[in-house]
Design goal:
The chain is built from eight helices and four strands; from the N terminus they run ααβαβαβαβααα. With about 190 residues, it is of the alpha/beta class. The protein has a single domain, classed as Rossmann fold. It has a four-stranded parallel β-sheet, with helices on both faces. It is globular, with a radius of gyration of 17 Å. It starts with 6 loop residues before the first helix and ends with a helix. Pfam families: GTP-bdg_N. InterPro entries: GTPase_HflX (IPR016496), GTPase_HflX_N (IPR025121), GTPase_HflX_N_sf (IPR042108).
Amino acid sequence: MDVLTNPYFESIRGDSRIFGFFESEARESKGIGTLVLQPWVKWGANKRTDTSRQLLLDEAVALVNTLPGVEVVAKEIVPVKSMDKKFIFGSGTVERLVSQVRASHHISCIFINVEMLKRGQIVALEEAFGRKVLDRYSVVLGIFRHHAQTKEARLQIALAELPYIRGEKNWRHRRAPNAIEAVLARD
């Protein structure tokens, strides 16, 4: 049986977690209001010296604006101690950002400009914000999905989404309370 006609792969294509979000949100509103967050390591071995934080933020905004029906409504550079932490942001920063997002009716989605967030980070941040949280990997997949014209191209996108789908299913079994939930429980 050809991979393109295999029902297993067809169901994966129909189970898109990434671009399906963009399509449904765009239908419900004039566009998807997105908050772009650029984490910036302030000091230490992980601090980037090859570029500026403003250039990274500008690149992130341009990347998000490539998606059809998506509009950047807010952007911010967020200082962090380390990108290797279990959670990217500290509890005070999370509280401030959650308040900002909840106060705005225009923000439907948060884009954090890192290569790939861990599944635990995505789940914790989505629960905290009450909004979809995306990283560069998911946005780039969304862009590719939008431009995919052939069955082969759509299949490759579906295969590239497998780590997300697999990670989501594994995470549900291992999920435990986290620091962000503890911070939000105080409200």
